[in-house]
Design brief:
This protein has helices at about 45-55, 75-85, 105-120, 135-140, 170-180, 200-210, 230-245, and strands at about 10-15, 20-30, 35, 60-65, 125-130, 145-150, 185-190, 210-215. It has an eight-stranded mixed beta sheet with strand order 1-2-4-3-5-6-7-8, sandwiched between helices. Strand 5 (about 125-130), helix 4 (about 135-140) and strand 6 (about 145-150) form a beta-alpha-beta unit. With about 250 residues, it is an alpha/beta fold. The longest helix has 15 residues, at about 105-120. The chain is built from seven helices and eight strands. It has one domain (about 10-245): Rossmann fold. It is globular and about 45 Å long. It holds the Pfam family DLH. InterPro entries: AB_hydrolase_fold, Dienelactn_hydro. Keywords: Hydrolase. This is Dienelactone hydrolase. GO terms for molecular function: hydrolase activity.
C-alpha cells in the first residue's frame, strides 16, 4: 500500500536563493497547522507514519518533499544515492558554518500560506537530522510559533566549529534569540550519545536560555520520532504542539 495514498498532493513555489523553486507537498488532517520537514534520505515511510500520528492528534499536517525518494522505507542505499545530489544543490548548506540554509525562505513561505488559511496563533515546524535546524530558520518568521529541533546534524561535523553550529546566519540567530526573549519556546529532542548532534544543544541553550525545552533520551539512537522512534520523544512533541497551537 502507498503510505501517502490518503494524503493530498499539491505543489508550492517560492524563492530560494533568488530563484523560484517548486516542491511537492502532501497534506492531511484538520486542526492547527504543522510543517514536518523530512530527514535524509527523503520523505520516507517512517516520516509519513509520524505525520499520521500528528494527524490523529488533531493537526493539519504538511509534508514537503525536498529531496530523495518518496514513501519508501528507510534505506542506507537511498542515503548513498541521495547525499551526493543534495551536496551539490544550491538549496541546502552542508558544510559552511554561520549561514542559514537557502531553502528556509521556501519553508517560511509555506508556513505563512498555511497560517493565512487556518488562522490561530501560528503553525508548528519540525525538522529532523539533516533538516533538524530548519525549524529554527523558520522561527525567524513570526508565523512559526512552535519550532521543534530533532537531532540536528548539519553542518556536517568534521571541520572545526561545525559541531556547535546551528545552521543559522548571525542575523537569523539574533532573530531567534529575540523571538525566544518575547516568549517563543523551542523544543529540542535527541539521543544523548548521538555523535551527529555534536554540541548544538548547548549552543541553542546559550542562545535562547530557559525558552529551550531540552529532551535528552538515553542511548545511541538517532532518529527520535521515526527509525529509532521514542514514545517519550513523540509525547514531548505532542505536548509542545498542544500547548502552543491550541491556544
Amino acid at each position: 500500500m502507498d503510505v501517502l495514498e490518503t494524503w493530498t498532493r499539491s505543489e508550492h513555489t517560492a524563492d530560494v536563493a533568488g530563484r523560484p523553486a517548486t516542491h511537492p507537498v502532501w497534506r492531511k488532517g484538520v486542526g492547527p497547522g504543522v510543517v514536518v520537514v523530512h530527514e535524509m534520505p527523503g520523505l520516507t515511510a517512517g516520516v509519513v507514519r509520524f505525520g499520521e500520528e500528528l494527524v490523529a492528534a488533531g493537526y493539519t499536517v504538511l509534508l514537503p518533499h525536498l529531496f530523495g525518494p518518496v514513501g519508501r522505507e528507510f534505506s542506507n542505499v537511498d542515503v548513498v544515492r541521495t547525499l551526493p545530489r543534495v551536496c551539490i544543490s544550491r538549496e541546502f548548506t552542508k558544510i559552511a558554518s554561520g549561514v542559514t540554509t537557502p531553502v528556509a525562505g521556501w519553508l517560511r513561505s509555506l508556513a505563512r500560506d498555511l497560517h493565512d488559511e487556518l488562522g490561530g496563533p501560528g503553525v508548528g515546524a519540525l525538522g529532523m537530522c539533516f533538516t533538524g535546524g530548519f525549524a529554527l530558520a523558520m522561527m525567524v518568521d513570526e508565523t512559526t510559533v512552535a519550532p521543534v529541533v530533532c537531532q540536528p546534524s548539519t553542518p556536517f561535523i568534521g571541520l572545526p566549529g561545525r559541531a556547535a553550529d546551528l545552521n543559522l546566519s548571525p542575523a537569523d540567530a539574533e532573530a531567534v534569540r529575540r523571538r525566544a526573549a518575547d516568549g517563543c519556546a523551542v523544543l529540542g529532542v535527541r539521543y544523548t550519545s548521538d555523535p551527529l548532534v555534536g554540541t548544538r544543544f548547548d549552543t541553542l541553550a546559550s542562545l535562547v536560555g530557559d525558552r529551550f525545552i531540552r529532551v535528552d533520551l538515553p542511548g545511541r539512537g538517532h532518529s527520535t520520532v521515526t527509525e529509532q522512534r521514542s514514545q517519550a520523544a513523540v509525547d514531548a512533541v505532542l505536548e509542545f504542539f498542544g500547548q502552543r497551537l491550541h491556544g
